[in-house]
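From the pipeline queue, job 12 of 40. The input is one protein chain; the requested action is below.

Action: predict structure.
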Amino acid sequence: MALISVGPPVFPIFFFLGCFFSSTASSEVSVFHFDIEGSSAVSNQESTVIRGQQQSVATGSLVPFAEKCHEGFYQTASGDCSPCKCNGNANKCLDGSGICVGCQRNTTGEHCEKCLDGYIGDVVRGVPTFCQPCPCPLPLVANFAVSCHRKSGVVRCVCKENYAGPNCERCAPGYYGNPLLIGSTCKKCDCSGNSDPNLIFEDCDDVTGQCRNCLLNTTGFNCERCAPGLYGDARIAKNCTECNCKGEPCDSRTGECLGEGPTGTDCPTISCDKCIWDLTDDIRLASLSIDESKSILLSISTGVAANKQLNELNSTVFLLKMKLSEKENHSLLRKIQIDNAETEMTHLFLEAKTLEEQGNQASSKGLLVEKETMATINHATQLVQQLGNMRDNIQEISSKMKYYGIQHELSPEDIIQKLNLAEEMLREIQHRKPFSSQRLLATDEADAAQELLRQVEEWQLRYNETRSLFPIVLDQLSDYNMKLSDLQEALDQALDYVRETKDINKENTAKLQENEKLQEKVKEQTNDVNSILLSAIDTLVEPQQFNIKLSDVIKNVSGFYAEIDGAKKELQEKLANLSRFDDDLVQQAMEYAQELQRLADKLDRNLHSVDTNGLVQKALNASNVYENIATYIEEANETALLALNTTHRISDAVVGIDTQIIYHKDESERLLNQAKELQEMADASKYSSFLLGNDLTVADTSHRIAETIARKDALKSRLMKAMKQIQSTEQGNIRQRLDQSKLITQEAVNTTLTITQTSTPMAKNLKNWSKNLQNFKHDTVAYDSAVDSAGDAVKNLTEVIPQLLDKLRIVDRKLPANNISASIQRIRELIAQTRSVASKVQVSMKFEGRSAVEINSKTSLSDLKAFTSISLYMKLQKDHPQLAASPDRFVLYLGNKNGKDYVGLAIKNDNLVYIYNLGGRDVEIPLDSKPLSSWPAYFSIVKVERVGKHGKIFLTVPSPSSTAEEKFIKKGEVPGTDSLLDLEPKNTVFYVGGVPPNFKLPPSLNLPGFIGCLELGTLNDDIISLYNFKHIYNMNTTTSPPCARNKLAFTQSRAVSYFFDGSGYALVKNIERRGRFSQVTRFDIEVRTPTDNGLILLMVNGSMFFSLVMQNGFLYLRYDFGFSTHSMLLEDSMKKAQINDAKFHEISVIYHNSKKMILVVDRRHIKSVENEKKAMPFTDIYIGGAPSEILKSSNVSPHLTVNTGFKGCMKGFQFQKKDFNLLEEPGTLGISYGCPEESLMSRRAYFNGESYISSSQKMSLFDDFEGGFNFRTLQPNGLLFYYAEGPDMFSISVNDGAVVLNATGTEVRSTERRYNDGKTHFIITSVSQERYELIVDDKTHSKKNPAKDKTEQKHGSTKKFYFGGSPISTQYANFTGCISNAYFIRLDREVEVEDFQRYPEKVQTSLYGCPVDSPPVALLHKKGKNSSKAKGSRNKKVGRDKEINSKATGLKNLDQEMSVQRDPHCHLSKNPKATEHANQFGGTANSRQEFDHIPKDFSDRSQFSISLKTHSSHGMIFYVSDQEENNFITLFVAHGRLIFMFNVGHQKLRIKSQEKYNDGLWHNVIFVREKNTGRLIIDGLRVLEESSPSVDDTWQVSGPLYIGGVAPGKAVKNIQISSVYSFNGCLSNLQLNGRPITSASQTFSVTPCFEGPSEAGTYFSSEGGYVILDESFSLGLKFEVVFEIRPRSSSGILMHGHSVNGEYLNMHMKQGQVIVKLNNGIRDFSTSVTPKQSLCDGMWHRIAVIRDANVVQLDVDSEVNHVVGPLNPKAVDHREPVFVGGVPESLLTSSLTTRNSFTGCIRNFVIDEKPVSFSKAALVRGAVSINTCPSV
């Protein structure tokens, strides 16, 4: 039946209904069951009875189909009844499966085996009521956990969203409340949106909810109202504005001014407004304060300890209440049971008395009475069980009633009232008649339902049986389906085969027919060819005869020679260009290029397959590949030299030919003149006796001229044939063109030789002519005809030769680029990577006594001169049989081949001996404190060190079971003054384990090879490995496998960290395999480095990137995830965290909600920035570096301020708090385990002329002192070392190139004055009681100590000294250069190299790198030596004065150049680094250069060449046309492709490239127009040519010629609008018809093409320029202008406004001072600000100018000044143009002292709170870049 809900009293009704029906129920189950939390409808006793009843049925017996199992059992598929396995938490389970139904006691699961969410307990092993509410923080009353679990005996809570803490005992950030207070919950902080926007959550008190920091001029508990003195809407509009009440109060909502306060001491009755309002405000504030205090007191929390104590007290009170309630219930039950027992006992007593009286009479009824008694006992037992059930129900209902009351916050009175109401309702229900009838109906329905249930159970049994067959049927159907699919695929494949077979048959049939036809044609053509060959043989007879006759060619050829002389020069150039391509050399070069490419790929594969932990053989393979590559490179170099020599020989041959031609030409001219004279003589001859003979001579001459004409025709045909061959080459590939070009060139050479041979008989014939014509008398017509014919022949030849030259020019343009250099460059990069990887192979080699390895060290030999340190791991093989015969062994040798100046290690007399030689005697240092016989059977570390002449050997023996280590040390010293290890680069070798047979060791090291395992560690600061070898001898890692070494066995590498040397990197691919990019994405890593710059993290995806770099020791984070504006920069601008101090620093990068980037260092917030909402689009991340192709790519390179790899240590890389082992990542290259201290020391320092470092040490500089260091400089003067003690001073300096030691007034100066040559020099200074000694590069200089007779000696104490300069010494200029490997003999510790990183005072000093590596003066001097003039001179006796003067001149020029590049007051260079002769276009729609001059021959033939670089898809590059734009020629970019277009009549000829060239790389483009033909040549490889039908129309264009863009309105007629806009990129090398185009007549928004990183802003170049704002911006009588600047020059015009009546406003900088000058029509007046911090420091600075009529205020970085000028009553507010960054000279008045344009960047320009967009300016003139500003 349906029960009507009656609201809150429902629970009491259920309570009494349960009691009512429980009391009237029989032994069967009650009609109503209440599943109340923590209760059970079946008690343990009932379960026992049921199980007892169930035992009557056999477990394995088959139940009849019509029957069902009892409760607590389920029917299996076989029909048996099995008990439900529900852990006592359910009575029913599904037939067939046994899954429990209706789990109780807060349990769940198929077998009620686990607790519900929000509960905790062990259901299987615990008591039935073990699932208890999670104590998070309080059970039942305050449970705020989603779930909880127990770990290590402690309960761990999984809190809801708003809660935090291990037990959810506090609110999460951004929420407030006290979860420990019953009834309290955590609510979200509400600060009305007026809290700090940089915080992720609103900041409020975590208990009271009061907002902590109200911003935007607000106040209040929730920042809900404006602060005092302001009015407005603080919640929605957020427009709190200052009251305009002159200090008086105002209404906080409307801003209405309130009444003034009293003026006297008494408050007047009428005018007390201020008192009233003040009192009202005070009362209101006091009320709020009381409410806040009340809430604080009600929810006060005194910390974690109090919370825990309160938690325990609440739990204890709750348990006590439960226990007391149970005790009370037990006492009531026991009382009821006692009453019942008393009643029963009374009845029993009466019955016993009756039975006793009737005993004798009713003996026969004894058994019956006994049965009745047993029945009564059973009934009593059932009653007891029912009472127990009722007791349990009462207890559970009572606890739920209490929980209900607590949950609904009901008082005891409310509970009693609701109970009374429920009793009344129950009584009313009991007295209602329909209830009994409804109960009967319900009983009938229950019977019917029972019958239905029985039928359902029968169906369930059948269903279970059927369901058990489902898997079998499904499997069979799946098998059939799979077989059908296979059959279908086989049929489809067979059908495809059939179709393919039919097609193939058709094709074969067609091919067969074609082949038959071709065979017939071939037969016909073969016959034709045979006939042609026969006729050709006959035809060749005549040319042979003609060749014989050509040797006799005579008569006038002077004109022919003259024409040849004109064409000779161009022919010679083409001959020189083409002859160098010898066929064999080109073929060899191509083969070598292919071989180099193959080896590069092989090297790349080996490079990425090197495993630093075990794959040793791959490292050997990589090194062998390197040797092969080196061999091929040498062969390629030899081939190149051979090609060069061949070119020289051909060039010499051409010169010889030229000489012969010139000679023969002169000889021909001389003979011609002689012939003319003879002709004149013949005309004057009067003799006729020789007439007949002369006629014969003329006839013979005519015959010979005819032969000459035939020769001309033959030569012309050969030239035409050559032209056809050249044309045919244009249709072939590049290789064929090159071969044809060589053939043509060879033919031209042969022709030249033929002509030369022809000239010889010409001279002879001319002599004969002179003899025959001496008496020539008349008729010269035949002679003139012959001469004219020869002239015509020469003229025809001159027409052919230019055509030949044009074809040669085409071939020359189509020559392929040489690919050998690119292959060699890639080989070099891979070799460097291979060497780096090989140096990181931390694997030993096993030496057998005959093995040897020659190491390829990358350490500079100059760095080894003064300081040498080698560390290695050594493991002895003591049981080797060879050691018994010869125990002394060689270990290593580093030195010259001649056996002098070396460092070595050997085993002698059971001791490890360190041996070194500095040019004199050997020094042997045996480590006798630890004989080798006592060494352990595992690896020990050995280190040998030399500082000057002082040497040490170290031994560290680790413990395999603990961190303890044994350390041993032994020292030695070289006698004398030798302190440098002079190693010759060509003769230096480094052998380990042994030496090759042909090498002779010094006697002290001439021992058998080492037996055991060795592994190299470091050489000075560099990590080295045995696998980075030049050669190996008798080494086979297969037969002699390396010994395993524990990589974490030594203290220096016990922490799991990774070492990066600047060349390697780690690559983590698919980073989301360990964690996902989510709402909060986090990267963590720890770094340790002494360097200044390095790449830390890099992610790249197309044009999107993320980079974290270290620059000058500070972090810079730049990223672009596809933002619509520009990339984002997050830098440590406040210099909060400098991380290059050789200590570990934790770096965290957090990306929150896809729009906020946060940088944290050492758990300190450094900076955060918000961006456009975009998710991180990356999958891979580079750590510590990246491949060069990535760093140099156009997408990444412009945004990286640092592109060098990280050098130092890294550890703990995490993504989303998940760790990664970087060495196990497959993309990792060139890193190793450990963090060697040697590599993190700063042994060198660079000083810039204003820097120094200092420290305090215990030493004596005036008594028994020795110290030394390296230095390198280009400056002639500078202080190297300084120390002062009272009046005494000790200094070492460079003075005019010489080294000077000054000790207490005694000066020791080196004789050489050349130490500022940019090379490394070593200084040793020593002070004794007798002498002061200065040693520079082993040259000794000394003086006597004048204080040697003094008896007083100064004892060593802690002294402060300086390197590189001193703040207290003004006598010397600070040093510019490098100082390294410094050491002192100290009183408190051993001699060791100074670690500058530990010095407490470091001023502007770089502790890594030395920029003096390539001195400009040295380069200039070197260039002079290698010049042609110096090369031709063999005189080596060049004076010293001339050399010094050249150096001084170089320095002077260098200083002049630097003065032009940099303003002395500015940190940044005046001209940022840019590509030479290249200009940047773009930023505005009409950025361009205009050129007015156009060559005269431009209309006939136009050839234009240019180099371009862009990322843009559209843009104009070149355009020129006539006035109507009917005739035009243009080159532009459309969709990334280059398009060359011009008109031919009314048609447009268009040539478009197939490839896209907007890849950010430089490309060379040549486009040519020749009448109706166009040609586009790209990078010398792509040649595109098109032509149109020729027209007779004249083609003429006029200026200007546009580059990079066009003027507004231009080119729209002929070009699509998207390509009319300005080209966005760089253009250079502009040439028109072979002539460079340099100076433009006008320039609009064009700057140099900058290199390096950039940012948003407008850049004004030093070349000058300005921006004119549009008309919507003006400077009137009242305005406010705010902008930011970053100058590169300390002077320049910032802004200018000028009116027609002479009024103006000008803002400019002058020597770092900002000045605003005005004229308002009355007179000039100005104000200025000189900021404390220089505006030229490379940072952004804010400038604001406010004008109000005659008052002007100037604000520069919050430093304010103002001026009040004369008031102009007739002032008119003009709207005049505003100039920014400069102004035309004509608008400047004479009173303005600064007239130069501004140089630097301007951004965030705002006028009257309206942002100004320079890209929409009215005009951008000059070198101004609108959207891009160089960062460095």
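Job complete. DSSP finds 21 helices and 90 strands in the chain.
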